[in-house]
Amino acid sequence: MDILLTALANVVTPTALLTLVLGTLAGILIGALPGLSSTMGVALCIPITFNMPPDLALILLGAVYVSSVYGGSVTAILLRTPGTDASIATALDGYPMAAAGRGGEAIGMATLASLFGGLVSVIVLLAIAPPLSKVALAFGPQEYTWLAIFGLVTIVGVVSERPVKGVLSAALGLILATVGLDAFTGEQRFTFGQGELFDGVPLLPVLIGLFSVSQAFNLCIPRDGGVLSGEAQRMQGRSLPYWADLKRCLRTLCRSSVIGSVVGILPGAGTSIAAFISYNEARRHSSHPETFGKGEIEGVAASEAANNAVTGGTLIPTLTLGIPGNAVTAVFVGGLTIHGMIPGPSLFTQHAESTYTLIVSLLFANLMFAVLGLWLCRYMVKVTRVPGAVLGPMILLFSLVGTYALRNEMFDVWLTMACGLMGYFMERWRYPAAPLVIALILGPILEVNFRRAMQISQWDLTTFFTRPLSLALCLLVVLALVIPLWRRWRQRQCAVA
Amino acid sequence: MDRAMTFHGIDRLVALIAAIVCFSVAVAGWGMRGDAGVFPIIVGGLGLLACVWLALTCRRAEGASQRPAPSDRQRLGLWCLGVVALLVLIEPVGTFIVLPLFLIFNLKLLARLSWRTTLLLAVGFTLGIYLVFARLLAVPLPAGWLAI
């Protein structure tokens, strides 16, 4: 309890609140602008946090993350163009509502649902993360090896329509993770004599390159990159939903928030998956499912509560086990490490104050985006009309200067650029970038723990199956491999039938 | 570059290049001291398997005969030219000279904004970068000619 009060005291200082407001504003804007993702927003903010105290840095990154997920709903409702993939399901009912002159009501419900989902997910995070971190303290190298494999298997299976492309992307990430001085023997591996690579491939230039610079390419090269051409609906009607509608949606809000939090905990499953599952569940449980897709306020509530509930859920495995479940939490890991905080169970003991400050600040960030979102949404539609060719060069310059600021090395700038180019072609050629980044993070965890376990057991592979916890995690990996294959096989059988 | 190729052609090319990289990593791992090479051998092998799998299945994949959306070559060329110039000149000439020039080049040629808006955005953005990175965060950005 004391630690929570200390965290609360850290968040309510004027500097922290100002950081929270700025982070929330930036996040809403990034979320609203199509082409800019939550991942990119958090990646761009990391260099700014470099000289900040860790608490403030985490507050900023957390605020950008949660508010960018919400920001996508505004353009989804008023322009039928979701700012992020999290809000695709919101557009299904949000835009018809706006077209019928109920845009204000739709945005009001999206805001309240996002707030509800966000708050539930933070409570789940607060309830689950500390006990899970205590369990994780009992993990040995065998368990960490299986955990890293589990993280890789799940992300590969979900992010690409062809798993082989995910496997190749992850293999490339694992190869990059082997670069640098070997932690056990001191052997130089694939450094080509470059001193900058002795500590391994720096994570942040890779992240910023793959997620920010590649977006700058995407915005600038197409003639109409990032320009929204849809017909904008005006914010008409009341700006908050009716009390009767809120009461009617309460069950949907609760159900969607739980779905979002659970989906968030699973590695690989993102905000859009949670939003669609919740949307379908809301339709299935509705007494008038025929109204869904034609301007049903419950559809907006389901989608938005779920996608914001994912935010807290994704942080559970990231903070407690050091296993990022998706691209944005992978970037978050980068943000934590530059402040000397290594994600994992020790985060809740060695850096307890900063960790709890982050969690409490997420509560405030949710409240903040609700207030600022309702106030600013009518102006945000104008900002989304800024052409991509104007935003692109600015994003590129900010990314490059930010990368340079991390270590004052031009090598990092060139690396960022190379990764940006690679990210551009990966997207163009339909190769997912998230497995590469997650493999780059999990690679060292996997290698160090695998070799440690092998050395302890004197190269006896059965060590990975003889401990109860290790065996349980092994079964989890098997399930993660088998379930998608079984689903695919069933789909094929259904198609044949 | 990729306009003439279908997705399955691209996948084959990627599989070939990645296979060479993975094979090299695995071979290099073989020659490493102690158990330092175990992980490179495993991941190189995993990568090789993925390459074979990709090469064997790329023709059957959905949309394999399609081509990537055509990109505007003129814009791509201009953008790349600007980016290369930015990277090459940023150290010798200096951040606060190259940054506004890069923005003017792009905003004028790619975004086709008016001179007034272009200059306003270029100067405003550079000033913002100066205030955030050079003043607030005290980052020693390459000064170039302005250092003299």
UniProtKB/TrEMBL annotation, chain A:
Keywords noted in UniProt: Membrane, Transmembrane, Transmembrane helix
Ranges for domain DUF112: 17-438
Superkingdom to which the source organism belongs: Bacteria
Annotated transmembrane regions: 58-79, 106-132, 144-160, 166-184, 257-279, 356-377, 389-406, 431-448, 469-486
InterPro entries found in the cross-reference section: DUF112_TM
Pfam families, alphabetized: TctA
Protein name per UniProt: C4-dicarboxylate ABC transporter permease
Protein's organism: Halomonas cupida
Lineage: Bacteria, Pseudomonadati, Pseudomonadota, Gammaproteobacteria, Oceanospirillales
UniProtKB/TrEMBL annotation, chain B:
Domain of life of the source: Bacteria
Residue ranges annotated for the DUF1468 domain, each copy included: 15-142
Transmembrane segments: 12-32, 38-56, 76-105, 117-138
Alphabetical list of Pfam families matching this protein: TctB
InterPro entries in UniProt: DUF1468
Signal peptide: none
Keyword terms: Membrane, Transmembrane, Transmembrane helix
Protein name: Tripartite tricarboxylate transporter TctB family protein
Organism this protein belongs to: Halomonas cupida
